[in-house]
């Protein structure tokens, strides 16, 4: 259930790449526990917006607060502390493919572990039970010691989910998490992602190409077009005409 606490606040946030405004004057507030979909045509600025939200890319102008912090005012060590509470799932998974699954799941600890713990864990994995439990939750318990590149695209995406579970963030950002799987697996993955977000009362912001997935799984839809917010409305109030305008050539 959504609460009133704002987790993410954008006030006229823009991000420029040379002459191009990838994100332009976006203002919105996302509350704790909300599930928000980002929709828009290719190049609309969805990935850029997610990168601003997790602080991997600085904003060019405006004001952005995530978890109560103005990311652009933080020192690197403070920024890393906030980033530990933001889990990101990428379309390309960002997994180390030649390592066993357990190491990729354990990468969720990296913000917390010392360098020594991280290095030691590559030889003798720490927190095996926790990793096993996370894999159980995403339905691939038997893959703990499998090499990551021997998993299917959908299974690799589940490993990325397990890594975020281990990280246990307050905010989950997902950039087209279903892009590499078939429609049936896409439904399953989105259900799983929402279920994981719900049980942990996490806030979810997910960019999607599939409008149906957004309607079915998200409370609210932000429509981005050429970097601008075309609409920001509860999913039930987003009409086919609004969707048509969003994607029109
Ligand atoms: N690092 C960068 N350098 C220069 N331009 C960039 C960079 N990243 C994104 N852009 C530009 O910003 C715009 C928005 O790109 P972005 O990847 O955010 O769109 P998107 O909505 O995620 O697209 P897609 O659905 O195809 O992934 C594009 O025109 C892109 O070319």
Automatic annotation (TrEMBL):
GO CC annotations, alphabetized: plasma membrane
CDD domains assigned to the protein according to its UniProt record, in alphabetical order: ABC_PhnC_transporter
PROSITE patterns the UniProt entry points to: ABC_TRANSPORTER_1 (PS00211), ABC_TRANSPORTER_2 (PS50893)
Keyword vocabulary terms for this entry: ATP-binding, Cell membrane, Membrane, Nucleotide-binding, Translocase, Transport
Entries under InterPro entries matching the protein: AAA+_ATPase (IPR003593), ABC_transporter-like_ATP-bd (IPR003439), ABC_transporter-like_CS (IPR017871), ABC_transpr_LolD-like (IPR015854), ABC_transpr_PhnC (IPR012693), P-loop_NTPase (IPR027417)
Domain ABC transporter: 8-246
MF-aspect GO terms: ABC-type phosphonate transporter activity; ATP binding; ATP hydrolysis activity
Keyword set includes Membrane: yes
Name of this protein: ABC transporter protein
Organism (species): Halomicronema hongdechloris C2206
Organism taxonomic ancestry: Bacteria, Bacillati, Cyanobacteriota, Cyanophyceae, Nodosilineales
